[in-house]
Amino acid sequence: MQMTQITNSKELLSTALQSRIIPNQEFLLQGSILDSAVDHLIHRLRGLCDTVDASPEQFHDLEVCLSLRQPTQTAPLMLRVRRALDRDSPFQLRYIGQPELDRSRPTLVRSSIDVGCTSTILDFLTELGCRLDFEYVSRGYIFRKGRMKITVSKIKAVPGKQQEIGSETVSQSYLVELSVLAPNGQDSIGDEMRIFAEQLKPLVQLEKIDYKRLGGLP
Questions:
Q1: End-to-end CA distance of the chain, in Å?
Q2: pLDDT tens by residue, 159-189
Q3: Any idea which fold 26-210 has?
Q4: Cα–Cα distance between 111 and 213 in angstroms, integer?
Q5: Residue 136 half-sphere exposure, CB side, CA atoms within 13 Å?
Q6: Can you cite a GO biological process for this protein (predicted)?
Q7: Could you tell me the residue ranges of all domains in the chain?
Q8: How would you class 144 by CB atoms within 10 Å of its CB: exposed for 0-12, middle for 13-18, buried for 19 or more?
Q9: What does the pLDDT look like over 91-104, one tens digit per residue?
Q10: Which residue, 146, 136, 145, 112, is CA-closest to 28?
């Protein structure tokens, strides 16, 4: 009975992906800005994004990054588990595929699927054989412009058990990400993002990052 349910779920997921119902691609641009200039960027984003009169949404998350080595594939399966540290909300499991660095595209494109899950997800993934690669805390602001999402976040390391989570700052700058989740076949999104990114210059230079040159994936 359980095997039948799993098979049916896979068929439903496959059908949804083929019908372009599920947003399974992430278009991404990234950059950074010094702490001393981040207030200017926040002000610029408040003027450019939706809900100009409202304060930007804030977040404070712990993100755990795992990988699962597969004998038949050279690249590991990359998984993320995220949970909010400032509110009682479901855990989020995210699959991230290998980035496609097509020079003809203005953004990095990678497969991405997000699902809500329970607090036992880390135990479940560990039992499956997933290995912890790294974890970090991100705290900052979320802005939205139509279907685009812009995050401005301070990245902090996860220290030893005797210290408070997220107390160790990694750098003197903020990570800025411009992203859109969409189904396959919506390549025009990249041009929209490029035009928006141009409006943030010279405060921040958003670009597609080749993580292979950096020795790993984000």
A1: 38
A2: 655 455 555 777 899 999 999 998 887 878 9
A3: Hypothetical Protein Pfu-838710-001 (2.40.320)
A4: 20
A5: 15
A6: regulation of transcription by RNA polymerase II
A7: 26-210
A8: middle
A9: 999 998 888 767 78
A10: 112
